[in-house]
Specification:
- α1 links the parallel β1 and β2 (27-32).
- This protein has a seven-stranded parallel beta sheet with strand order 3-2-1-4-5-6-7, with helices on both faces.
- The chain has one domain (4-225): Rossmann fold (3-Layer(aba) Sandwich), CATH 3.40.50.
- It has 232 residues and is of the alpha/beta class.
- Helix content is 40%, strand content 16%.
């Protein structure tokens, strides 16, 4: 069944790969600052700055139908030197935008018979990591926000769940991957001895947008090669 899926962060990394996969059987409305090189009849791009409330409002006004919202976009650092402004910008993209989009699309989602929200969290939602306080705070907030969403949106028959990936090879993690010492250290903490790739997320995404997960809400699915189970 073709679904209308709103997906953020479609210009690169996991978001771009997910878009191409989802377009095989669905219609995708992609939100990001940069336009991806996708030319498909079932793909619509809406230029959106997810750190800007008015840009989000403008984007939502162009969306007529939605069955699934996937809040995927995230940043781990900015070029802003001021610590407060840097922290604020990361929270706006990683935490405020998912809340705002979910709130604004609530009415349209409620008109779907299979409404689902998927928030992309992280293993940073579960344990602390050094030198990344804003990202960890945002992902930790998104983790518990998902559970609150599941409660508040249940009356509209909208399910809300989250996915917490571990170390996946993306533009965001490429620097760590290219550093042999860091790559080896991270691999040593995985039960499945390799970094993840977007294909490792396809199964859980397919499940959460389908009727097979119709009794599942308020849950977080950790896809990390066993990182959290092994511990530090």
């Amino acid at each position: 069944m073709n679904k209308y899926i709103v997906l953020t962060g479609v210009s690169s990394g996991i978001g771009l790969d997910l878009t191409l996969e989802l377009l095989k059987n669905n219609t995708v409305i992609g939100l990001s600052r940069k336009k991806p090189k996708i030319n498909r009849p079932n793909f619509t791009y809406i230029k959106t700055d997810l750190s800007n409330k008015h840009s989000i409002l403008k984007a939502v006004s162009k969306i007529n139908k939605v069955d699934v919202l996937i809040n995927n976009a995230a940043i781990t650092k900015t070029k802003i030197k001021d610590s407060y402004s840097n922290f604020d910008k990361i929270l706006k993209v990683n935490l405020y935008a998912p809340f705002f989009l979910s709130y604004l699309l609530k009415k349209k989602l409620s008109q779907s018979s299979q409404a689902s929200i998927i928030n992309m969290c992280s293993i940073n939602s579960h344990i602390g990591f050094p030198n990344n306080q804003a990202y960890s705070a945002a992902k930790g907030g998104l983790f518990i926000l998902t559970k609150s969403m599941a409660i508040d949106l249940s009356k509209y028959k909208i399910r809300a769940n989250s996915i917490s990936p571990g170390y996946f090879l993306t533009p965001m993690t490429k620097k760590s991957f290219d550093n042999k010492s860091k790559r080896k250290k991270r691999l040593s903490r995985m039960l499945i001895n390799r970094w993840g790739n977007t294909k490792d997320l396809y199964g859980i995404i397919d499940y959460l947008i389908s009727e097979k997960s119709s009794y599942v809400t308020g849950q977080d699915f950790v896809i990390d090669g066993g990182w959290l189970s092994k511990g530090l």
